[in-house]
Amino acid sequence: MPVSRTATAETHYEDRGSGPVLLLVHGHPFDRTMWEPQLDRFSRTHRVITPDLRGYGLSPLGASPGSTGLDVFAEDLAALLDHLGVEDCVLAGLSMGGQIAMEFHRRHPGRVRGLVLADTFPAAETEEGKEARNAMADRLLAEGMRGYADEVLDRMVAPYNTHAAPHVHRMMCATDPVAAAAALRGRAERPDYRASLAAATVPALVVVGRDDTYTPVSDAEETHALIPGSALVVVERAAHLPNLERPEEFDAALEAFLRSLERTA
Predict the structure, then answer these.
(1) What is the DSSP letter of 69?
(2) Which strand (E) or helix (H) includes residue 185?
(3) Considering only CA atoms, which of 1, 55, 59 is closest in space to residue 28?
(4) What is the mean pLDDT, run by run of 10 residues, along the chain of 265 residues?
(5) What Gene Ontology molecular function terms does this protein carry (predicted)?
(6) C-beta of residue 257 within 8 angstroms of C-beta of residue 231
(7) CB-based contact 59:53 (threshold 8 Å)
(8) Helices (H), 44-175
């Protein structure tokens, strides 16, 4: 598998297809394989890049002070695009990946041709949320990933979408708990992205699973209302991972968005 190396990061990634670039950013605690259905479909019409974020999948965490901020992940993505000679892309992220996409857009707006935010939210963390994320980080360091994965599987993947559950559970259990804890601590200190989204000038698509309890439809509606001219798609019979639970419906929404960008261009 190809790898991009900088002084501070080693990013493993898949790079398939040709044409306009679509960069897909996975959530926590997953890896690039959560985008397998989209990689297979959209690499027929686009150059699709799916990295393992630092500490996830094959990408090592590297030196870490115990917290990996969203800014670190965003700059890793910028370095990967530089390594590949990619000037701009359609940037899509789910959950934590969506927040990384928002951070990337805030830092590098000129490199984003279109923004796709799936099952995510832009507000800064509450004090209660910070405590919960740091407590979970402590727990993962003490206990590992298996117990957490068992507990949250039915929220990540709706119980009626059993076809997606084994893959999701494997990804969670395979994640390095040290990296997962560092990401949780970093997300606890994230900035508020509502102002940068409200000022966005790129086309945007907001997607959410109807039965997502982590980032409910109301969060997606608020995000949609923030971004001028954005589109909102609610995927029925899906929870937090509609791209895996209902790939045909998710892909139809993404394909329509990508085609709208081509017409605009």
Answers:
(1) -
(2) helix 177-188
(3) 55
(4) 90 98 98 98 98 98 88 97 97 98 98 98 97 98 98 98 98 98 98 98 98 98 97 98 98 98 81
(5) hydrolase activity
(6) yes
(7) yes
(8) 70-84, 96-107, 127-143, 146-156, 165-174
Which class for 53: exposed (0-12), middle (13-18), buried (19 or more C-beta within 10 A)?
A: buried
Structure confidence at residue 235 (pLDDT): 98
Q: Which two tokens stand for residue 125?
A: 């963390």
Give the C-alpha separation, 248 to 242, whole Å: 9
pTM of the model: 0.98
CA distances from 123 to 47, 183, 189, 213, 265 (A): 31, 17, 11, 16, 31
Helix (H, G, I), strand (E, B) or coil at 113: strand
> Residue 150, Cα to own-chain centre: how many angstroms?
21
pLDDT value of residue 63: 79
Report how far residue 59's alpha carbon sits from residue 14's, in angstroms, rounded to the nearest whole number: 12
H or E, element range at 23: strand 21-25
Residue 263 confidence (pLDDT): 79
Q: Which CATH class is domain 3-264?
A: alpha beta
- Alpha-carbon dihedral of residues 74, 220, 38, 171, nearest 10 degrees? 70
- Interhelix angle 146-156/165-174, rounded to 10 degrees, is 150
CA 226 – CA 240 distance, rounded (Å)? 21
Are the beta carbons of 141 and 177 closer than 8 angstroms? yes
* CA atoms of 260 and 166, how far apart (whole Å): 34
